[in-house]
Amino acid sequence: MEVEPPQSLKKPLVVVEKTMMGPGPSNYPQRVIDALGKQVMGHLHKETCEIMDDIKEGIQYIFQTKNEITMCVSASGHGGMDATMCNLLEENDVALFGATGHWGHRAADMAKRYGADVRILESELGKALSVDEIKSAIELHKPVIFFLAHCDSSTGVVQSYLGDIGLICRKHNVIFIVDTVASLGGIDFLMDEWKIDVAYTGSQKCLGAPPGITPISLNDRAMFKITSRKSPVKVYYWDFILIATYWKCFPSEQRIYHHTISVTLLYGLREALAIMAEEGLQSSIRRHTSCSFKLQQGVEKMGLEMFVKLPFHRASTVNAIKVPEGVDWTKVSDYAMNKYKLEISGGLGPTKGKVWRIGLLGLNASSEKVDLVLKILKESIENTSDFIFVDKSKM
Ligand code: GLV
Hints:
By secondary structure, the protein is of the alpha/beta class. The chain has 12 helices and 14 strands.
């Protein structure tokens, strides 16, 4: 053998405890950490299947849906997005993407790769789309699917009125897909009531589970689109019918082997869902909302500005703060990380260099963490720039 065992692997594993207050992953609750440390079981063992059944019910709860096809894709939220595009779209299908930041464009990029005829409805940066804008775009483009990110984590914009948009999609026979990666558990979401056909979320945000496993749910309309495809789903690994059969979503079908799921990730997700169920969805949403409100007040009191001007367009989960003129955002984030091991992220896509993003997600949506992040942000700015703090709320 010409390749020697690497020296690097002779050193012990280094994992630094950090306070994860970017747009995710968020810190794990201890109960999730304990679950992740448990011994592996087989991906088709009876006990694993029971855990999968528990998870399915937990996902139905957090999405507020009775959909039979409720399961996980073995991949991060990105994989949930890619798998959704792969299953729901065929060559030349017209696909309309609402973009309130980065994620509409990312989904559109994926859709193009599956041969869709992509159209984009872009909001003014830092604003949500209006129902009228969406209605007009749907009437104009007559798409097969309409995609929206509930919270766009690059801008911190929340897209409200999903129920009105769901009705418009139904009326025009459009499949309505909502990405709830950065919102679910922190912002109201009612999948069935709002007539949302496909929704997926991120395990590593409000749920506080590891990334790499993506809860997803599809209703009958979405499944009909898939079962009436003229061509097979292009990626075997993403095939929702096969994944749903593995998850025993079709009561009359036997469970099949599709892939070797990470049973360890299932343990973590199961416990994260159990914690959410114990707290209650409404209480979790209230907690995220009140923490974000406190953070916004603190930011303004400090003389900084929220990136999203209109308070009702602001997500409570990912909060974007404008980087003031003359301040180097990287120095501030680096200071917070080096001195306090606290993550404050920079912008993404259209907000790169323009904002810091503070995630109040899961465990980190607490009043104490808001105080901590505000204190560290202030100190980091003071120590890395000449910025003068003026309490604008008193002006
Ligand atoms: C990831 O979700 C990000 O917003 O950076």
